From TrEMBL:
It comes from the Bacteria. Gene3D superfamilies: 2-enoyl-CoA Hydratase, Chain A, domain 1, 2.30.42.10, 3.30.750.44. Residues 92-168 form the PDZ domain. Belongs to the peptidase S41A family. This is S41 family peptidase. It comes from Chitinophaga nivalis.
Amino acid sequence: MSNRKLNVFLPLLFAVVLALGMFLGHKMPGSNTGGATVFFTKPSRGALQEVMDLIKAKYVDSLNTDDLQQEAIEGLLAHLDPHSIYIPPAQLQQVNEDMDGNFEGIGVEFNIVADTVNVISVLSGGPSEAAGVQSGDKILKVNDSVVAGNGITPEKIRKLLRGPAGSVVNTTMLRQQKAIKIPIKRDVIPLYSIDASYMAAPGVGYIKISKFSATTYDEFMKAIRTLDKQGMKKLVIDLRQNPGGYMDAATRIADELLEDNKLILYTKGKDYPRADYKTKRPGLFERGALAVLTDEGSASASEILAGAIQDWDRGTVIGRRTFGKGLVQEQYDLDNGGALRLTVARYYIPSGRSIQKPYDKGRANYEDDIVERYHHGEMLNKDSIRITDTIPYKTSKGRRVYGGGGITPDLFIPFDTSRFTPALTAIYTRNSFSNFAYRYYTTHREAFKQYKDASDFVKQFQTSNELLNEFKAYAKTDSIPGLDRLNAHDEQEIRTRIKAMLARQLYRTEGFYETINATDPMVKKAVEVVEQEKD
């Protein structure tokens, strides 16, 4: 057929094929009902989605389907491990800010007492300091919203104060009984994960890591370099009550403490091939005595770091058995603005042991594990620790280490139950120490200017009898029982806490930990252990 004849025939051929296709399509089963044809099959929605759609379309009453979906998702996840969780849209921003290590706001720390928002401290170098906000100011209004005396909550005030960097929030503050208007230009505010770093003794540095966020490694390196300039030869790392966070932050810190080409951990799951994480570079503190402090609140990334240090005989783990979380989660964003944090693998520390504690008896049993440890005596006696060993293992120095339920410390330090007498418990739960310290500081601000830094304050300041009696009088207004019958231990605990909270008022968490650690038995033991080791 010539090209000219083909050009004439092709349009006719296409028209016939199109007409035939339309006829056959009309005759196909389901073509008039919106059903799928044999050529293209719609993916099944699944029973769960079908039920949700039917409820939404047909149910007799109006329902909040978002709440229903959340309950359905949580019900589904309840049959998995305890660490696979759904994060609702309303909570996702705060969760991400916490892990990213920053948020956008004005840079103040506040508390709420009697419906009054009190500025406790102002971030040095932050937007509030630049605008002239002072600790002791009381926030009356944020833009057009009155926040004093109307049942304000921390969540509401955070929502009002936070906003895009560069935007302005107009505040009205009460200072010395005068209302003053202060516009504040919002900026990026860091959320520090290292609460304190200082020299705990000559040649002995101390670093407190509260979580492992995106900024933790950089904070750690800055702390190490600063301590090194101050003569640090030995180091104590405090991981107590550290719930974990980014695994990458823990492995990068481990790389600074262990020699090159050593396995830190490996991960493996059903659809998650084994991945090894090894040290790659010369570290800043590969030599020198090292102690790591742990307790029942040390979890996940904290256990990775402590476990690697223990397995390689790099340092001494001191304290109590860790939480026992050896599961790896990945976070998946959802179309509704929420996220699913799903367990995809287990991690194993260098000895090959998984430190994940059992969760086959349900979430309630899993969550009650810490309370159960206390009741059967583990918090007070190392011999009461119930080991669920996965792999018998001895380190190169012959130390037996245990897995299957957290990291068991090399040196056990019992929980101090004497800190929780009825009077002290009431003081803690009513937040009396913090509220008193704030009030005392704001009325005696000039007296504290004599201290040049946290270390100077710890050495020089003493809680006088006069100050103790002033606190007792304040605490009586909080209906604290037994203030007239305090034993010597309770009284000393109160003196120490008052000093620590005043140090926090002056020097934030750095001052608090430097003060409280001076009498902390676990920190004192760690300093003693590293001092005994040869350089």
